[in-house]
Every structure is written in C-alpha cells, then in structure tokens.
Amino acid sequence: MQPTAQRLLLGLLCSAWSCSGFTEESNALNFVQRKVLPRVAPAPNNSTAQSELLSQPWLLHHKYIFACHHKAGVYLLDTLFKMVFYALGAKEGDMGRWIQPCYPFTCLFPEAPLQIWIDLYSAERAQEAREAAGAKGIRVVGIVRDPVSMIVSAYCYHHRGMEPYNAMFYPEGTLLQLGPKEGLKFVAERMLALIENMTSAFEQPVNDTFHLVYEKVAGSSQGFDEQVEEMMSFLFEDHLTSEQHSLLLNVTKFADLNRFPRDSSDSSHMNDEECEEEVSKYVPSLHPELLSRYRSFQERLGYAVT
Ligand SMILES: *[C@@H]1O[C@H](CO)[C@@H](O)[C@H](O)[C@H]1NC(C)=O
Ligand SMILES: *[C@@H]1O[C@H](CO)[C@@H](O)[C@H](O)[C@H]1NC(C)=O
Ligand SMILES: *[C@@H]1O[C@H](CO)[C@@H](O)[C@H](O)[C@H]1NC(C)=O
Ligand SMILES: *[C@@H]1O[C@H](CO)[C@@H](O)[C@H](O)[C@H]1NC(C)=O
Ligand SMILES: *[C@@H]1O[C@H](CO)[C@@H](O)[C@H](O)[C@H]1NC(C)=O
Fold first, then answer.
1. Domain ranges of the chain
2. Is Signal a UniProt keyword of this protein (predicted)?
3. Dist. CA 280 → ligand 4 center (Å)
4. Confidence of residue 53 (pLDDT cuts 50, 70, 90)
5. Which of 169, 202, 232, 260 has a CA positioned 20 to 30 A from the CA of residue 249?
6. Structural domain 57-301, CATH architecture
7. Are the C-beta atoms of 78 and 20 separated by less than 8 Å?
8. What is the pLDDT of residue 263?
9. Following DSSP, what letter does each residue of the chain receive, concatenated?
10. pTM
11. Residue whose CA is at the smallest distance from ligand 5 atom 8
C-alpha cells in the first residue's frame, strides 16, 4: 500500500468520536478500537471546519446524508461514510452523526454538511431533511436489507452477548436468556418501528436517494465494487478527478469483508451462520399478525416473501 493510502486508511477508520458509537457492530468496533485507535491521533474537534470542504466546493452544493438501521449494515455504511469523505478532505467537524436514542457522546455536529443518521431515518424524516435543505437538495445513501434477515441476524447477534447496552432490547440480558422462538418474537416486536421506518424511507425510488443493497454489497467483492461505483457516481456525478476516483475505489475496498475479513478473535460469524439457519426455521411460527407485517415490509422493499 502506498504510504498516503495507508495513512488515510488509519486516519479514517476511526476518530475519537466514531469509536464511541454505541449501536455499531461490536466485533468490528473492537477491531477498530484495539488495532487502529491507539495508532491515530484524534482529529481536530470543532464544527467551524466546514471551510476545509472549500477545497472541494461542489461538496457544499448538497446536503449529504448516509442513513442506516440496526442490522442492515450500520458498521459498513459508517466505514464507507468516513472513508469517502475523509478521502475528499473532510474534517471531523464536517461530519455529523445522529443516533436514536442518543447515547452519551454519540450525537455530534448537527449542522455539519455531511451526516450519518443511525436508527432513525423514515419517510417523514426524509421529507423534513428535503425541506430543510431547500434549493440545495439532499443526496442520501440508504442501506437496505431484507427485513426478515435483519430480525434473524439481530437475535443471533444479541443472543451471543453483543451490544448488551443496546436500549432497543432492554432490559439488558433479556436476549441471552431467550431461546430462538421467544427471542425471534422479542426482536421482531422491538424492531418493528425501526423496520417500518426503513421500509417507508426506501420503498419508493426517489432520485435524490441511492439504495445500497446489503445483499449485493455484502454478498461478494464484485457486488461490493459495483455498488460502491454506482454510489459514487450518484453522489459525486462528474466532479471527481481521476485521482480522487481511484483513491476512493482503493480505500473503500477495505470496507469489503470478503476481501478483508476480521480475524477470528474479533468475530464469530461462523456461529452466526449456523444460528441464523436455525433461527430462520422459527420465522413461520411468529404470531400471524406480526409475521404479516414483516412480509409486507419484504414486499414493499421488493424482496421475496419468506
Ligand atoms: C490500493 O492502492 C495501493 C497502491 O496503488 C495498492 O498497493 C493496494 O493493493 C490497493 N489496495 C486495494 C485494496 O486495492
Ligand atoms: C468534542 O466535541 C464534543 C461535542 O461538541 C464535545 O462534547 C467534546 O468535549 C469535544 N472533545 C474535545 C476533546 O474537545
Ligand atoms: C477550529 O479548527 C480550526 C482549524 O481546523 C482553527 O483554526 C479554529 O481556531 C478552531 N476553532 C475552535 C473554536 O476551536
Ligand atoms: C420512526 O419514524 C418516526 C417518524 O419520523 C420517528 O418519530 C420515530 O422516532 C422513528 N422510530 C424509529 C424507531 O426509528
Ligand atoms: C429529481 O426529479 C425532479 C422532478 O422530476 C427534478 O426536478 C430534479 O431535478 C431531480 N433531481 C435529481 C437529483 O435528479
């Protein structure tokens, strides 16, 4: 790796604030905290840094929002957000963050021109953002995943003890106790509003919003590259120089878990695969009313109904 690319990678994977993200996938978070954080100095911490973006003035033409929901690739989207904008010269204060609920130190720089919004985006919030941006308009990257996979994945993830502090599944420790049938019902109920919001935000194609499809971006490196390429042309049109374009393609590849799997001490995805296969069997046993909500989310988002 070229020294500049390497410095950039280290610098952008983690800055002081982003590592305190409470709702991020803890595996990846631990990886970043242990391996990367000690090696990078925290970036300047003030919100007057917008002027830094003036080196890429077209970045101020729109309000950029990356939107994601729990278990639909939050860590992936957050990593892409940082990689892309740090690589274009953004500073910490240019990059805002809003998480619902707002755990201590997790909501930052609400006025920043570049935003990542976690666990709160909905059709209504999209409309508010559009109105607030006025003539500038918004450019949104939203990551979308099959809603039924999201609840199955959430059960397995929390049942093995990850993110015990996640308020969505309080009281703490509940999911450690519950077996797959009761546990799946519990997460399906707790995530209902969140997934309704994700569905409402992304069911209709809108020309100011790009859908990053979780299944494509996580499924293979080829899918990852195609999605990232499409995302970049949506976001930046023809503003990037060819050097910037190559740099962005190069650094974003580090977010591809097929190319760069976390080492086994950081994650136990194998267990998750077995778990997910097992827990999926209980989907049909969800209460018919609850199940029909999830099937309707799948339909609205264009997924096969399971
Ligand atoms: C990024 O670019 C460097 C230097 O050109 C190269 O050595 C490295 O393999 C590239 N990384 C990826 C992930 O493509
Ligand atoms: C960084 O900014 C946040 C939010 O404005 C503030 O709470 C925090 O104390 C600041 N940290 C430093 C090191 O200045
Ligand atoms: C914010 O950072 C810039 C340089 O990045 C510095 O010139 C300015 O004084 C800082 N402002 C505050 C309020 O710390
Ligand atoms: C869902 O969207 C509504 C309307 O924007 C918002 O008030 C609510 O907080 C959101 N809830 C979740 C869990 O995302
Ligand atoms: C989206 O479509 C509207 C209405 O057709 C149009 O006015 C607007 O310029 C388009 N925006 C983008 C980003 O293409």
1. 1-36, 57-301
2. yes
3. 27
4. low
5. 202
6. 3-Layer(aba) Sandwich (3.40)
7. no
8. 54
9. --HHHHHHHHHHH--TTGGG-TTS-HHHHHHIIIIIGGGSPPPP--TTGGGGGGGSGGGGSSEEEEEE-TTSSHHHHHHHHHHHHHHTT--GGGEEEEESS--TT--B-TT-SEEEEES---HHHHHHHHHHHGGG-EEEEEEE--HHHHHHHHHHHHHTT--TT-GGGPSTTHHHH--HHHHHHHHHHHTHHHHHHHHHHHSS--TTEEEEEHHHHHH-HHHHHHHHHHHHHHHHTT-S-HHHHHHHHHHHGGG-TTTSPPPTTT--HHHHHHHHHHHHTTGGGS-HHHHHHHHHHHHHHTPPP-
10. 0.81
11. 207
Higher pLDDT, 29 or 280: 280
Residue with tokens 């994700």: 198
Pocket probe mutation, ligand 2, options 15, 18, 45, 111, max atoms within 8 Å of Cβ: 45
Question: Hey, whose CA ends up nearest to atom 7 of ligand 1?
Answer: 1
